């Protein structure tokens, strides 16, 4: 199977080249036989990549350390679950996983769209094949997972301890699905530009694929935040790390597209915006991969310096040049069918939304690139840290939150005074009452008060929309509230699924505002000692050390400290934090340390706050150096992410299409149902 997989990788490259050639030829010559051959070539490329992936998994699970990849990222004592995830744990494997998803998505796009977009599909297939050619060529010539060593090691190096976490099984695949998902809308955008078919029809296929990409990217980002929180030990879930930033960039532009596409469908506006946002989402995905693979930035996620980075830089440059050329030569075809009639309208609100999202994306991109640019120009790398990102993006984020609530309240084309008064009375009341109550309760952080005020405004907007919709169904169909809610969402998934996504955004922003009250305490504590701390809510916590223990488990040596914990005198259980040193080899008398020691944090959590304990080190036999962090509302981040994911699934869920005609629906009657006089 391993040999089959190795050969299949090269065959996949040849099939992708054939697919790209005949698809573009078929599209330009109007040859249906060539187009059909390109479709079959897409399926064949996917099949070959599946075989190549199966071969690598076989090498991993059989511990064939003659392969450099297997020896570099696995070991004989690595748990089975992490042998599975080792497939994407290294550079070559993760790129093979990328092209596996790409060819699967390409096959699915061809299967579902070939009959509805006949003029676009040859160029869609050709564009996707070119992307596949790049990745397959990079694998075959630059970073081949089947590269063999000149000697056979007894054991492998093992997997990085930071990756030996259950999140490794779900976080990277979701991000890859989100990244690769941008390829399909990009291919449709390129096809629409090439054929000059830039009406709203190309958006039908693009929108659903953009939703798929957005859903997986959202899920991947939230899971990555959770992984960083429970694994890295620095007490937070977002550090403006360059690779974190890289995952955020395509999410921002895809989110902007999913909002502005509604304006083009409704009013024929923002056509240039939509094409550019789709293209930028793909380019930013490639950019994120470039900075991860190139080694030009320092990150806990990045790979070492590799020539593969040059491959990505070259591909990114070519893609940018080609995209800019196509857009600039089609500007006349992208002219809007309508003009903005009022700055107080729903389409204007969506435009403001786009401007803010793109503004955040630009600031994140600039902050990420700044160290690279300064090193290239001045020879000295100047790092841009969280203070810059927070100073720029916190105000923009709050503005974005406010616009999230304003957009659905304003009418299309031009809002009237009566419309504004009717729609804004209840949300505006929440905007005033929430901060007044918080201030009266003793909150003095202005940033937190503003965040909660805006969150209350958006929450009131969502509640108002659901109240009206449920009330209408209750009066029309005499449905109970739960039944009316289900039917309301089911009959208009796009609208009310979007409101559920917005509810998730509100929850996450409330959690972010809790960071204003985060406190950290560095302590040295010996066995039997007790330390007393006060949390942001005024509760008194006592931590009594039960000593330091040392033991071996699986492939690691563990040093742990246990703290007996009480809140206001009430026992809250034991919190344990660990330092783990991983070893290679199964012989306990001949173990070789691998990587730096890793930290396993101890967390005692509730929806109000987490008590977060990190073991920094041990002095003597029973004295530990620890950091205790009180993190308010952290669990609301995971809750908000879950709510956004559920809303995204609702929006994506297929809905029966209704055939419309000018003035109403098309109805087909049986012949026997037609009155005789009419016949």
Q: What spatial order of strands do you see in the largest sheet?
A: 2-3-4-5-6
Shape: globular
Q: How many β-strands, per DSSP?
A: 11
Global structural class: alpha+beta
- Give me the Rg, rounded: 28 Å
Q: Which residues sit in consecutive blocks of at least 5 with pLDDT less than 50?
A: 658-679
So how many helices? 19
Helical content stands at 55-70%
What summary fits the major beta sheet?
5 strands, antiparallel
Give the SSE string.
HHHHHHHHHHHHHHHHHHEEEEEEEEEHEE
Average predicted confidence as pLDDT: 87
How far do the termini sit from each other? 68 Å
Strand content: 5-15%
Explain this structure to me?
The protein is α+β, with helices and mostly antiparallel strands and 679 residues long. Among the domains are: 161 residues, no CATH class; 118 residues, Tick-borne Encephalitis virus Glycoprotein, domain 1. Helix content is 59%, strand content 14%. It is built from 19 helices and eleven strands. The strands form three sheets. Strands 2-3-4-5-6 form a five-stranded antiparallel sheet, with no helix packed on it. A four-stranded antiparallel sheet has the order 1-9-8-7, with no helix packed on it. The chain has a two-stranded antiparallel ribbon with strand order 10-11. Strand 10 and strand 11 form a beta hairpin. It is globular, with a radius of gyration of 28 Å.
């Amino acid at each position: 199977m391993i040999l089959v997989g190795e050969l299949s990788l090269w065959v996949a490259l040849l099939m992708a080249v054939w697919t790209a050639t005949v698809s573009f030829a078929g599209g330009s010559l109007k040859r249906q036989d060539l187009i059909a051959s390109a479709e079959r070539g897409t399926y064949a490329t996917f099949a070959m990549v599946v075989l190549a992936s199966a071969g690598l998994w076989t090498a991993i699970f059989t511990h064939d350390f003659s392969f450099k990849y297997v020896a570099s990222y696995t070991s004989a004592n690595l748990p089975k679950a992490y042998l599975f995830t080792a497939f994407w744990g290294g550079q070559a494997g993760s790129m093979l996983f990328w092209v596996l998803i790409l060819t699967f998505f390409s096959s699915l796009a061809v299967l579902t769209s070939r009959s509805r977009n006949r003029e676009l599909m040859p160029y869609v297939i050709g564009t996707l094949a070119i992307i596949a050619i790049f990745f397959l060529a990079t694998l075959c010539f630059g970073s081949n997972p089947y590269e063999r060593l000149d000697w056979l090691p007894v054991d492998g190096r093992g997997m990085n301890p930071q990756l030996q976490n259950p999140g490794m099984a779900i976080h990277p695949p979701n991000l890859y699905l989100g990244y690769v998902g941008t390829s399909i809308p990009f291919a449709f955008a390129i096809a629409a530009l090439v054929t000059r078919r830039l009406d709203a029809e190309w958006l039908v296929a693009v929108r659903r694929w953009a939703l798929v990409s957005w859903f997986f990217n959202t899920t991947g980002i939230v899971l990555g935040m959770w992984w960083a929180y429970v694994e890295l030990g620095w007490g937070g879930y977002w550090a403006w790390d360059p690779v974190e930033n890289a995952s955020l960039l395509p999410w921002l532009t895809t989110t902007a597209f999913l909002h502005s596409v509604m304006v083009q469908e409704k009013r024929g506006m923002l056509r240039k915006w939509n094409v550019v946002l789709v293209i930028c989402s793909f380019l930013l995905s490639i950019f994120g991969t470039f900075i991860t693979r190139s080694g030009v930035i320092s990150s806990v996620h990045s790979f070492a310096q590799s020539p593969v980075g040059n491959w990505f830089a070259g591909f990114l440059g070519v893609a940018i040049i080609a995209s800019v050329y196509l857009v600039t030569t089609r500007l006349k075809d992208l002219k809007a069918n309508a003009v903005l009639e009022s700055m107080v309208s729903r389409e204007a609100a969506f435009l403001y939304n786009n401007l803010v999202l793109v503004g955040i994306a630009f600031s994140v991109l600039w902050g990420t690139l700044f160290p690279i640019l300064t090193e290239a120009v001045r020879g000295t790398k100047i790092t841009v840290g969280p203070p810059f990102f927070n100073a720029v993006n916190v105000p923009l984020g709050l503005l974005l939150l406010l616009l999230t609530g304003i957009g659905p309240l304003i009418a299309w084309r031009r809002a009237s005074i009566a419309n504004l008064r009717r729609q804004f009375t209840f949300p505006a009341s929440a905007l005033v009452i929430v901060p007044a109550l918080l201030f009266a309760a003793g909150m003095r952080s202005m940033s937190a008060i503003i965040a909660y005020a805006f969150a209350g405004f958006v929450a009131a907007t969502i509640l108002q929309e659901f109240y009206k919709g449920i009330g209408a169904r209750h009066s029309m169909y005499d449905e109970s509230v739960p039944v009316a809610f289900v039917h309301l969402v089911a009959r208009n998934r796009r609208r009310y699924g979007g409101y559920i996504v917005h509810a998730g955004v509100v929850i996450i922003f409330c959690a972010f505002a809790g960071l204003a009250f985060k406190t950290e305490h560095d302590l040295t504590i010996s066995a039997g000692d007790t330390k007393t701390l006060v949390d942001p809510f005024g509760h008194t916590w006592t931590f009594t050390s039960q000593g330091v223990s040392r033991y071996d488990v699986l492939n690691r040596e563990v040093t742990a400290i246990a703290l007996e914990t009480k809140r206001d005198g009430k026992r809250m259980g034991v919190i344990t934090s660990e330092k783990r040193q991983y070893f290679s080899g199964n012989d306990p008398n001949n173990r070789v340390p691998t990587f730096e020691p890793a930290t396993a944090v101890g967390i005692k959590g509730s929806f109000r706050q987490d008590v977060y304990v990190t073991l920094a080190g041990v002095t003597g036999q029973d004295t530990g150096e620890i950091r205790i962090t009180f993190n308010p509302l952290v669990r609301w981040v995971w809750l908000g992410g879950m709510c956004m994911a559920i809303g995204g699934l609702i929006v994506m869920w297929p809905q029966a299409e209704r055939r419309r005609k000018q003035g109403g629906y098309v109805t087909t009657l049986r012949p026997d149902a037609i009155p005789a006089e009419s016949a």
